[in-house]
Amino acid sequence: MTEDIYSDAKMKLRREVLTILLKKYSHEGNNKAIYECADEWAEKYVISAGVVDYYNAYRQSFINKTLE
Fold first, then answer.
1. What is the 3-state secondary structure (H, E, C) of 8-65?
2. Among 16, 21, 42, 41, CA closest to 31
3. Residue 64 confidence (pLDDT) above 50
4. pLDDT digits (tens, 9 = 90+) for 37-54
5. Cβ neighbours of residue 42 closer than 8 Å, sequence gap 6 or more
6. pTM of the model
């Protein structure tokens, strides 16, 4: 099971997602949310298409969680 989480394909997807999100959102200074979102995305999906919309929803829930 651990091998599946860290497979080459999953790690490549995670890097791709991080590249997309960091390019677009790193100026916001919320890198923890970006990394957590990338981890979650790589566990659930096999391509990066749609990750920006996913992150926008994820970011809001992350902000709400930190305000509690």
1. HHHHHHHHHHHHHHHHHHHHHCCHHHHHHHHHHHHHHCCCCCCHHHHHHHHHHHHHHH
2. 21
3. yes
4. 999 999 999 999 999 999
5. 10, 11, 13, 14, 17
6. 0.84
